[in-house]
Specification:
Layout: E1 2-6, H1 8-16, E2 21-27, H2 33-44, E3 48-52, H3 54-60, E4 69-74, H4 81-87, E5 96-100, H5 106-118, E6 123-127, H6 136-142, E7 151-154, H7 157-166, E8 170-174, E9 180-181, E10 191-195, H8 204-209, E11 212-215, H9 227-248
Parallel strand pairs: 2-3, 5-6, 5-10, 6-7, 8-10, 8-11, 9-11
Antiparallel strand pairs: 1-4, 2-4
Helix pairs in contact: 1-2, 5-6, 5-9
């Protein structure tokens, strides 16, 4: 089964990453230098390009903003956690991973991937069950990050956390009831941050497995943040600490 991408950023990222893009459909009314460059790259890579009526794009995209262009990418097998860690053995700095504990909204999944990749995360781990799919909606929200960020599926997130800890990774859970705030920890070593479900947060056993729990300090009356917003804030804090440490050397 093919995965559909829509919009310039996700399709460009898929082509740049060497993903198996099988076909691109573009509206005959789609114009602009970025569209022309993308189609030129696609043709150089041997990707079939089909010019269609705008109505065909709109129907395929389900009315979502597509910028007049769609791509169909062959599904590839998921990496295991062990395969992801083997891939990341080549990373020359402390690991920074994101784990999602049953995040079910594809918009949130995509937005979290976007923040994680932008702030230097090396990979993302999703549970096998009760996780948002890597759909066109997720890819659009990620703006190309899902094509850049290595992703693994874990059959059991608790066992995945244990494996990470055995590999020397410090596992930090996000929990609005935690005593410590995100400013209280040192993120310059190898770490994995666990983001919980949009409504219920971290599951009890996942919370128990974490080495530390942190919360984002809020000063207004709103009691909590959207999962993807919270992930973006903690990813920024991690990136900031690591940049400061590099500059101090």
């Amino acid at each position: 089964m093919n995965r559909m991408l829509y919009g310039i950023h996700p399709i460009q990222a898929a082509l740049d990453a060497g993903e198996p893009v099988e076909k691109i459909m573009v509206s005959k009314t789609a114009q602009g230098g970025r569209i022309r460059q993308l189609l030129s790259l696609a043709r150089k890579k041997g990707v079939s390009v089909q010019i269609v009526l705008p109505e065909a794009i709109k129907k395929r995209a389900g009315g979502k903003a597509s910028q007049g262009i769609l791509a169909f990418v062959a599904e590839v097998g998921w990496q295991s956690l062990e395969e992801l860690l083997a891939l990341l053995n080549r990373v020359s700095e402390p690991l920074f991973l994101i784990l999602l504990d049953q995040v079910e909204d594809p918009h949130n999944l995509g937005a979290i991937a976007r923040s994680a990749e932008a702030f230097g995360a090396h990979g993302m781990i999703l549970p096998q069950r009760r996780s948002a799919p890597l759909s066109a909606t997720a890819s659009k929200a990620a703006a190309g990050a899902l094509e850049l960020l290595p992703i693994a599926r874990a059959q059991n997130l608790n066992r995945a956390i244990e494996t990470l800890k055995e590999a020397g990774v410090w596992v930090i859970g996000t929990d609005e009831t935690a005593e410590r705030t995100i400013r209280d920890l040192d993120y310059t070593g190898s770490i994995a941050v666990v983001i919980g479900n949009e409504g219920t947060g971290l599951r009890h056993l996942v919370r128990e497995k974490c080495d530390d729990l942190v919360r984002i300090p809020l000063t207004g009356k709103t009691p909590s943040l959207n999962a993807s917003v919270a992930a973006g804030i903690i990813c920024y804090e991690i990136s900031k600490q690591r940049i400061l440490k590099r500059h101090q050397k």
